[in-house]
Specification:
Length: 504
């Protein structure tokens, strides 16, 4: 027992220290793995990686463990990134730092030669990072772009309206679930694992990985085409609900089976024999010496983890708490005729906001503005969600400018309001073909942002120094069939008034 503690105690202490330091990153990642079917496979990634390492135990036992001190730089970098992500609640940064730090830490303590033996298992750990959902809009577009020509080639009349496909029998939406993101991510992970197990040469490995990337995209477009074709042939009797889900599950199994068949065709006939001989030789040459890491390295690594924990606690304790409840913009004080009321047809979701102003800006401008009351200007919906004193999160995946179940995004562009001022204009469409435009920007007391990533990074950077600021999202919207330039003129005129009032 004492010998086991001496041999494996430092390694266990190192993993415990890593787990404790990155606990929040691990916990939030596991929540995503369990709640999103896109990332269910992540539960198996680390167990598979450690099993692959276990298979290499004989080769590892013959390698000297000489620490690579240069890896201290990226390890410290992951601790900084994790702290930054924790302060700003940027989950992607937390997850990247968490699951990049683990293989780096192993590499650091065992050294280059030993790490080279288990290079792929260490790399495979990176697939634990729940990332890839950002590709969904692009995959939706690609799937729709590919499905439409297939339908037309088959002679099925189809009208495309954004991500909606209309055939005589009904309407289909290429929704997020139809993007094939689950197919793609799982296929890529499987492709890497299969290539590592089945092929010896790098060109074949890279070729199979490329196939595992392209094949599910093509297959998913064929799946969407097949669902619409079935709907056309059965008059919508077998094209929705449970049938739709069954087609997806069955098709996914077919995709994986097809990849295995492709891999088997590519496999060298002698690979299995060579692999067996190598395994046999490795077994004969077993070195029984223990896999021991330096206690000094373990203690130093733990010291780095403890330093990060104290650093994060200091940042949180130093963050100032604003008590100023004055709004960045009060719609009632502007030279606009407004009617505050709950929005009906357009309903943004910012549930954690400190204050919400919403309603209608009535047609013409107020008396005294550069426009006369005789001019006919369409009523415009407005929505302002304010966050004060560091309360809530302005940039959050839970916040939505529109209900994605009712509207589909078809355009997103930048618009110049005044000289040096910008906003984002998005165009969305409803299932019945109604178009709505939304002009919006993010506002701080002395800065305006149109890019939510830049705003999030700026807010987090300020929070690292214990500073929080008031923030708000300001959005103007209306349904219109006008051309894009007329829409921009209508919305930007009122946006200019709001922005100028903030500057004043």
């Amino acid at each position: 027992m004492n010998n086991l503690i001496i041999k494996f105690g430092p390694i266990a202490a190192l993993f415990i220290a890593w787990f404790y330091t990155y606990y929040q990153g691990i916990l939030t990642a596991v929540n995503i793995w369990g709640n999103s079917e896109i990332f269910n496979h992540c539960f198996f990634v680390i167990p598979i990686a450690f099993y692959l390492i276990y298979q290499k135990r004989h080769e590892l036992s013959r390698q000297p463990f000489v620490a690579n001190y240069w890896l201290l730089l990226p390890i410290i970098g992951t601790l900084v990134l994790y702290t930054f992500g924790s302060v700003g609640d940027i989950r992607l940064f937390m997850h990247v730092a968490t699951f990049v730090s683990l293989p780096l830490l192993i590499w650091f303590v065992i050294g280059n030669k030993a790490a080279q033996v288990i290079a792929f298992p260490l790399f495979f750990i990176l697939f634990s990072i729940p990332v890839g959902e950002q590709l969904i809009p692009f995959l939706q577009e690609i799937t729709t772009d590919m499905a439409v020509p297939l339908l037309e080639l088959t002679g099925i009349p189809v009208y495309r309206n954004g991500l909606y496909l209309e055939i005589p029998e009904g309407r289909f939406l290429v929704a997020e679930a139809c993007s094939g993101i689950s197919f793609l991510i799982t296929s890529i992970v499987f492709g890497h694992l299969y290539a590592y197990i089945s092929f010896k040469t790098l060109p074949k490995k890279l070729l199979f990985i490329l196939i595992s990337l392209i094949f599910p995209i093509l297959a998913n477009a064929l799946r969407v085409y097949g669902i619409v074709l079935i709907a056309h042939l059965t008059d919508m009797e077998h094209a929705a609900g449970a049938d739709h889900l069954i087609y997806g599950g069955v098709f996914f199994a077919i995709v994986l089976f097809s990849l295995i068949m492709i891999g088997e065709k590519m496999r060298d006939k002698f690979d299995a024999d060579k692999s067996g001989k190598e395994t046999s030789n490795a077994t004969v040459a077993v070195d029984e010496k223990a896999l021991v890491v330096s206690n000094k390295l373990v203690m130093f690594s733990i010291f780095l983890f403890v330093t990060q924990i104290f650093w994060y606690s200091a940042i949180v304790n130093e963050q100032s708490s604003l008590t100023n409840n004055e709004l960045i913009v009060d719609i009632k004080t502007l030279p606009l005729v407004v009617k505050e009321q709950n929005l009906q047809r357009w309903q943004p979701e910012f549930s954690t906001a400190s204050n919400i102003q919403q309603g209608i800006i009535i047609g013409p401008y107020a008396v005294g503005s550069e426009y006369s009351a005789s001019q006919q200007v369409e009523n415009i919906d407005f929505f302002i969600a304010s966050y004060q004193g560091g309360e809530g999160e302005l940039i959050s995946a839970a916040n939505k400018l529109y209900n994605e179940q009712r509207w589909t995004l078809i355009q997103n562009r930048s618009v110049n309001i005044d000289e040096g001022s910008e906003a984002r204009l998005i165009k969305i469409v409803s299932p019945i073909g109604q178009y709505r435009y939304i002009l919006y920007w993010y506002q701080l007391p002395d800065k305006a942002f149109t890019n939510k990533v830049k705003l999030k990074l700026y807010q987090t950077w300020m929070a690292m120094f214990g500073q929080t600021e008031q923030s708000a999202i300001i959005a103007l919207s209306f349904e219109s069939e006008q051309n894009i330039e007329a829409v921009i003129n209508s919305l930007s005129a009122k946006a200019s008034i709001i922005q100028n009032s903030i500057k004043d």
